[in-house]
Structure formats: C-alpha cells, structure tokens
Design a protein that fits this description.
With 147 residues, this protein is mainly beta. It has 1 helix and 11 strands; from the N terminus they run βββββββββββα. It has one domain.
C-alpha cells in the first residue's frame, strides 16, 4: 500500500498533484471556516516540491512538500500526501491515490508520521500524484471508481 523506493529520486524536484472529489474537501482545524472552492469544492491542480518522504511501519507511504504554483489559492503552503489504496505505486505509470493535507506551517514528525501543528490551517482531501499533470491525465484514473 505504498510508494516504490524509486520515488525517492524525486526529492527536491517538482511533481504534480491533482486534487479530486472524494467525500469533499474539509477544513480540519476550524470546520466552520469554508474551504475555498474552485471546481465543485475541489482545488485546481498544482505542483509541489518534495522536501521529505515518510514511512509508516517501514514502508514508504508518502511525502512532505511545498506547493509552488503562482496564482494558486494554496501557493507557498505545505502539504503531506500518503497512499490510501493497495499496491506499490510510482509517479509515472502506477500513480498513487492519496490522502492530502495542506497547512501553513511545515509539518513536524510526530511518532512515525508528519503532522501539522495545532493552529495551522489544515485542509484535507484526496488527490492523485504524478511526475507531471500529463502523467496524471494519461493514467485514465481520473473520473472512475478507485479500487
């Protein structure tokens, strides 16, 4: 249920993130504050620079990064993504379907997991992650049921 170790070669590089509708986008820290929506409550795609990878129970499961997309509502914020479906995924031909959290401060390592500190706005949703937006579009995963 994780990422292939080859994904670690993307450390320090930009990758693409395509938020998707799941159970909707929610604001974890202050649920009464609406999440800025762009398309049916889902943010537009963006790029992020991977700063670190995270393991859970000795399996590579996700990454921490900075969003770098000028003009995007989440530009310059931090994110954490981690896999949510079975299989071994990569960023080119078996893209991961992930949980995604976005916050204003760098997530801190807590136990085996990176988490946002209290008081940092956290937006939560789902996404696909790939080497590029073209990889995500060509994957055929957008718009179908994920198993």
């Amino acid at each position: 249920m994780g990422l292939d170790e080859s994904c670690k070669s993307y450390l320090g590089t930009l990758i693409a993130v395509r938020p998707v509708y799941g159970w909707g986008w929610i604001h974890l820290d202050a649920p009464k504050i609406p999440v800025p929506d762009q398309i049916d409550g889902v943010p537009y795609p963006f790029h992020c620079r991977i700063q670190d990878f995270l393991y859970f129970e000795n399996e590579l499961r996700g990454a921490v990064g900075n969003i770098e997309e000028v003009g995007h509502i989440y530009d310059s914020l931090w994110l954490v993504f981690y896999t949510r479906v079975n299989g071994t995924h990569n960023f080119t031909d078996n893209l991961p379907y992930c949980n995604l959290q976005i916050g204003s401060t760098k997530p801190e390592l807590a136990r085996e997991w990176h988490e946002f500190t209290s008081g940092s706005p956290i937006v939560n949703g789902y996404c696909f992650v790939g080497e590029s937006l073209k990889h995500i579009a060509d994957s055929g995963k957008i718009g179908r049921q994920i198993t």
